[in-house]
Design brief:
alpha/beta, Purple Acid Phosphatase, chain A, domain 2, 5'-nucleotidase,  domain 2, 2 domains, 13 helices
Length: about 475
Amino acid sequence: MKHLLSFYFYLCVIAFSLSASDTTTIIILHTNDMHSHINKFSPLASYVDSLRKKYQNVFLFSAGDIFTGNPIVDKYKKPGYPIIDLMNYIGYDVTEYGNHEFDYGQNILLNRINQAKFPFICANMIVTSQSILEQPEPLTTFYTKDSLKIIVLGLLQIGKNGLPDAMPEKIKGITFKNPLKTVKKYKSYRDSCNVFILLSHLGFKTDKKLAAKYPFFDAIVGGHSHTVLPNGFWQNNTLITQAGHYTNYLGLLSIKLVNGQVIERSDTLLPLVMDTYCHYQTSKIIYQYNQNLELHTVIGEAKKDITAPYGLGALMTEAAKDRTGTDIAFQNIGGIRLQKIPAGNITIKQIYELAPFENTYVTYNLTPKQIKQIIKYAYNIHKKNELVASGIKFTPVIKNHRLQSIDISDNKGNPLKKKRYSVTINNYMASAWKLKFLKYGNNTGIKDSETIINFIKKRKLLISNRLCF
């Protein structure tokens, strides 16, 4: 009830601003990083319906990463189909490409794009003849009921390797330009529209940098970093918005214009709560998609909560090491996609949520120096530890906020010997991380999610957060 009262108060504020005849208010509803989480589409649909009935100019945007994170959607007979079906039903107007749009592979992505009744846009993505995808439009245009023009430009993040955070083999035939250089080309569009919006899958940190350098957008509707901005963030007269992740919030961006000129902007987040504000027909669709009994099969029991990153990371690396028979296994923390397996029954669905990418194991025979290079590379991605390991212990030594060295030992605390150790990593790390020796591993083809499921089935009971079996 509290959320409803806040919502209606916000609508009253907007309604007051509509009193003048020469005033137009544009409402842009926005989500980002939904990652296949469809259960809260029911309150989402209710909010959207309410606003569309009350106001003339309402648009619904997605800032990318529609897919990967809920096996109900990811393991559907047509992967990704349920969430696009629901987005069509609710009436999304546009989405920006996210890095996880490529997770299913280009064939499936093309099917989902063709299924969608809204465009996928991106200005810094170049599709060559080696890809089956079509070149996306860099932007799209909308008009209000009184013919005011809204231009929406899309940009996708790239990492240090010049690619989005996606499996390189799944984006073959596509190149990506630097988004901060690409955006300069579109400055002139500022003068050809009433409202200029950036639909960004760059992350909050990069959005701030972009707004500081190129202050010609009225608002940036952001994604990628899963940032919760309750009322947006102002940078150089640009309102930056982002609505967390997993469809926990619906962003409501209000833009007020007088005589075609923007005079006021504000943003708020509406919590999407299952039991307070639901849409009957959308709930029926979601219920039908959730009828996958196999995913609810119990495979083991956790005596205590197993939490991210180190408890769940240890589960993943112990399973990998056990399956491949190597001395050491690493798991990148970014690939641990579940925050907790609570005490009690463990289901297949939880493991697919934990490891949704169907990564495969790649094995190597590495020297202690090369093992340290992997740890160092991971640390330098975000200037913090990004790995969980089994078979060794390691500690990054930091001085003046810089990585000085890495203390590394076996599980008994002994220094590693001057020999080669067998090591397992996943194929994302093997292909996306720019270490020359990672090119020469053996891809076993063994999937991580299936391995973890079988690992738990064999042991039945997982005792603690650090996994004593």
